[in-house]
Amino acid sequence: MQLPLINPTLINIGPFAIRWYSLAYIFGIVLAWFLIKYFNRKEKVFEEKNFSDDFFMYSVISIILGGRIGYVLFYNFNYYSSHILEVFKVWNGGMSFHGGFIGAIIGIYFLCKKYKISYFALSDIIAISTPIGLFLGRLANFINLELYGRITTSKFGIVFPNAGSLPRYPSQLFEAFLEGIILFLLLFLLGNFTNIRKHKGCLSGIFVTGYGISRFIVEFFREPDMQIGYILNYFTMGQLLSTPLIILGLIIILFSLKGNSINK
Fold this sequence. Notes:
Elements lengths: L8 E5 L2 E4 H24 L7 H24 L2 H6 L14 H19 L3 H25 L27 H23 L8 H17 L18 H27 L1
Antiparallel strand pairs: 1-2
């Protein structure tokens, strides 16, 4: 299959541009908010008055700042250390999930502190909704013809017009399926049809572990970042950063289950 060149900008309005990737962020946060409200009606984790405005502000700022700083530090530090002003040109691309994840952790902490609510009670319902944004983000990567996969001879191969004439894995779609659809269904079903919500933090841990495993697997099909290449001749930076997530998620799950059993 040969992909056409797709304009990463959906609409130009004078000097302003609406890009697919920006829309993925916006719709991801908005749709996540509706799902968070759905679960909050059951759990009463927070009072919605004034909370929604702060939620959007904290989410946008923490995710964008964390994602950008993470990309600069983890993926292209040598370049940005010599081109400081380029760090602020977010519209040119360059975001890291792992950095955005760290930013989100910090943002949730301050949000919980302000409203005096349980950190893991909130992070659990956010965890269920986050795969929606991941799914939309990976679709935007596919539309932007970026983060494509390695060269392949399999029937899944797609020719990306900006990556030569050989077919490559559509790794963005693999990630959308694993990190988005599968992880969402797992967390949504667990959150709705089991008593796992009694163990605060467990869903958060499952999300972190699930994402880490999904990303680690897909990295075997994804083309490594050009400026980094392979680490130890085999692994990628994405796998290196995802390994601590898998471990962290498992620790959170174990402590969550153990803590609740002790309370009983």
